[in-house]
Design goal:
Elements (H helix, E strand, L loop, with lengths): L1 E9 L11 E5 L12 E5 L4 E6 L2 E2 L2 E2 L3 E5 L11 E7 L5 E4 L4 E6 L4 E5 L19 E9 L12 H6 L4 E2 L6 E4 L4 E7 L7 E10 L5 E4 L2 E4 L6 E4 L10 E4 L9 H23 L18 H16 L2 E3 L6 E4 L7 H7 L5 E4 L3 H10 L12
Parallel strand pairs: 9-17
Antiparallel strand pairs: 1-4, 1-8, 2-3, 2-7, 5-6, 10-11, 11-15, 12-13, 12-16, 14-15, 16-17, 16-18, 19-20, 21-23, 22-23
Helix pairs in contact: 2-3, 3-5
């Protein structure tokens, strides 16, 4: 088999009223009248082309001829720039219909983005970056009103060589254990407030000729400085979202704010830890408090619930289910008295399923209960 892939780097302006380029594959040499016979033709779609063809017939190797054609109605002065790649192993240029990345949250000038689960070569990986792996993820961010990729959004070359506002291609991408698996994470700064962006995730081989672009996804920053993203907390490792900003200058940066929230939750957890010590967690299986769960599961689920209710998620947008909070009217005394937010915000309420998991996984003797409203 011969794998043929390509992508368009640039194309004529829309005003020239052109159609997509067509790629024709044949086993006979092309003539002035078109491709040789028999032939298979298909178009570039949004800047991307991928196909495969057998190089033999009845066990005899054949030559394959490739023709790149514009429609007969195209202006003769119109021009395209494109790349065509041939491989006997795989499609070296590819497009994935999944975005495979998502914006977990934003604040007024930054966004926190994670990839989908990383598999394969990462199963035995111990370092916290992509260094040493045969592939790498990169992120490109464009203004949402940029039209240069409207018809080229599946082209790796167009996405990676365009006038992106932000690119991580020369940065070290961190790997974290988040959401039940290893994922790449990006913390994007210096964005504009209340602004929409379009982001593209790409992957490429470090030592292999592999290039892939994923479906784009949107980012919108918040419209005030009421919230700030915190992530990579030591105790509440699952927290990666915006929280109410402190009015105190010493907590103005993400690290200081994260440490303040994190240390508070860790101190609250100490009381629960003492209570759990009264439970015979190491007893023989038939004597434990449950045949289907254990103390480790209890600790994990209680910790997730405690972090969610103690570190309020903050937004500046009014959405169904969000609760409006004045600057000094949080449901959490710690937020009112220590954080002391300086602007009103909307609180994204914790998911009640976190509480149900905690009650299900912890001993009944702890008498844990979930709110009913």
């Amino acid at each position: 088999l011969l794998f043929i892939s390509g992508n368009i780097a640039s194309e004529p302006p829309v005003s020239e009223n052109w159609n997509n380029l067509t790629v024709c594959l044949s086993w006979e040499r092309p003539t002035q009248n078109g491709p040789g016979q028999p032939f298979i033709c298909s178009d570039f779609v949004l800047g991307y082309y991928g196909n495969l063809i057998s190089m033999s017939a009845k066990g005899v190797a054949q030559s394959v001829f490739v023709s790149i054609m514009a429609s007969s109605s195209t202006n003769t002065s119109s021009s395209w720039s494109y790349l065509i790649d041939f491989s006997t192993d795989s499609l070296n240029y590819n497009y994935d219909t999944r975005s495979y990345a998502d914006s977990l949250d934003t604040d007024y000038n930054s966004a926190f983005i994670v990839t989908g689960p990383l598999m394969g070569q990462l199963l035995n990986k111990t370092s916290e970056t992509f260094e040493g792996l045969p592939f790498k993820y990169s992120l490109y961010i464009y203004p949402s009103d940029y039209t240069g990729l409207d018809s080229l959004e599946r082209s790796w070359t167009a996405v990676t060589s365009g006038p992106a506002l932000y690119s991580t291609v020369n940065e070290t991408v961190v790997i974290s254990n988040r959401g039940g698996g290893l994922r790449g994470q990006f913390y994007i700064t210096n964005l504009n407030a209340s602004t929409n962006y379009t982001a593209y995730l790409t992957s490429s081989g470090d030592s292999l000729p592999y290039r892939q672009v994923y479906e784009s996804f949107g980012i919108r920053t918040m419209d005030s400085r009421a919230c700030k993203i915190i992530y990579d907390l030591d105790f509440c490792q699952g927290v990666a979202y915006s929280v109410p900003v402190s009015s105190h200058l010493k907590y103005d940066n993400s690290t200081g704010l994260a440490n303040l929230y994190d240390s508070r939750v860790e101190s609250l957890f100490a009381n629960f830890s003492k209570a759990l010590q009264q439970v015979p967690c190491d007893a023989p299986e038939q004597e434990r408090f449950s045949p289907v769960t254990n103390c480790s599961a209890c600790i994990k689920s209680y910790k997730a619930w405690l972090c969610a209710v103690s570190i309020p998620r903050c937004s500046t947008y009014d959405r169904p289910g969000y609760m409006y909070r004045q600057a000094n009217e949080s449901r959490n005394d710690f937020v009112n008295e220590i954080i002391e937010p300086h602007l009103p915000y909307f609180e994204v309420m914790p998911c009640i399923d976190l509480c149900h998991d905690m009650v299900k996984n912890c001993p009944a003797q702890l008498k844990l209960q979930c709110p009913t409203k």
